Amino acid sequence: MSGIGLSGEIEQSIAEKEMNNIIYKTNQALATEAIKLQLAKDIQEAKPTLKKSSIDNYIASFGKFHGVSGRYMKHYYMRPMAIIKEIYKMKGVSDNTRKNYLSAIMNVMTCYKYNGKLCKGKRRENAITKYRGAIYDLRKKIDEAKAKLKDGLTDRERENMISYEQVQAGFNLYNEMAKKAGLDKAKRGTKLTGSEFDLLQRWVLTSLYSFLPPARNEYATLECGKRDDDGVVYGLVVEVPGANYDIKNLPRDTNYLVRDAFGTNSFKLIINQHKSNKSLGSREFSIFRNGKVMLEIGNSKKSSELYPAGTCKSLYQVLDKWYELNYANWLHQPLFVNKKGGRMNRNSLTKYLITTYQKLYPNKKISTNILRKAFHSSKDAEFKKEYDKKKVVAESMGHSIGEAMTTYTKEIPK
């Protein structure tokens, strides 16, 4: 009996240790999450014009090396050269990514507060100076490497570069696959398998990048909504009870795809949060049933015809089919979801895009950057002599004509 009792005590002791370990890890996770929230608040206060997505990226990059728990924060101040060397030694990472990591560390450090007070002192200033110097050296190295490129492409970009016709071939492939699976004839209420739903998402994704001038990865943040006959938009992920959202006064902290049943049967693709929203403002695409696409930039209230009727009919049909088959889940959810049903972030959307096009180009990693370069490099000749048209297209992608020509227009490898 005593042996059994001792065995029971040992088992109880092990169970208690495991439980204490779980409690400790949970408390650590909660403490880390609290620091992240406080960091986000500190950065937002110090830099009120900074986008939430940029703040989230800063914190994620900042915590990659020694975390953001209180006990490790001092490493970024005390050991700047060690952190810099650690970043320089990273394998399989471009200099541009290294620069982004260092920028994230420097930006977070300049805003970090301890007990509500901004951290100051020679040690902090010395560390920031070292990070700033490393960023400058990397930027110089990147610029020198770009100047040596014959066709404006890095070796990695050259390996992955495709023409815009090949981009559209990606849509054609998923269009055929969707039809073969019967998705084009499926009706509302049809229960989709996991593989069918995945095919539907990739069909939508390739249609957006094939028919509209390619966006960066802003589609990761798209929320779905619906504007009813009374002109009110509802069904957003975060919806304030009693708030009557008109299409023009939707909260500006995210992006939307709105099924518009008010006046016209169209889809409104509203990009509020993007890289150049400070200079350009929001980008609103109206995608009509007849295939016409109108574009409105910023608060100008002036619409320009991006594509004439008939051009983007397939895009409307795919979005309409998505709306029909996903009707029960259309409202109160992001447009693209991961395998667990949660929102994709920008990085996961990029990976999803790469695997989508690898179905057709298995040896290539086609990112939004490649798609944007493919668009300008293949399509630029069509509107080279039409300044106004070129300006509209450039703004629809969230950049200037100058950036379109210098950054994205390249010679496509044969």
Secondary structure: elements and pairs:
Layout: H1 2-46, H2 52-66, H3 70-78, H4 80-88, H5 95-111, E1 113-114, E2 117-118, H6 122-147, H7 155-160, H8 164-180, H9 194-211, E3 222-227, E4 233-234, E5 255-260, E6 266-271, H10 277-280, E7 283-288, E8 293-297, E9 303-307, H11 313-325, H12 327-330, H13 346-357, H14 368-379, H15 387-396, H16 401-408
Helix pairs in contact: 1-2, 2-5, 5-6, 8-9, 9-11, 14-16
Query: How many beta-strand segments?
Result: 9
> How are the strands of the biggest sheet laid out side by side?
4-3-5-6-7-8-9
Rg, Å, rounded: 25 Å
* Overall average pLDDT: 76
**What's the shape?**
globular
Question: Which stretches of 5+ consecutive residues score pLDDT under 50?
Answer: 380-388
H/E order of the elements?
HHHHHEEHHHHEEEEHEEEHHHHHH
- Percent of sequence in beta strands: 5-15%
Spatial gap, N to C terminus: 82 Å
Largest sheet: 7 strands, mixed
Share of residues in helices: 40-55%
Structural class: alpha+beta
Count of helical regions: 16
What's the short version?
By secondary structure, this protein is α+β, with helices and mostly antiparallel strands. The protein has 16 helices and 9 strands. It has a 7-stranded mixed sheet with strand order 4-3-5-6-7-8-9, with helices on one face. It has a two-stranded antiparallel ribbon with strand order 1-2.
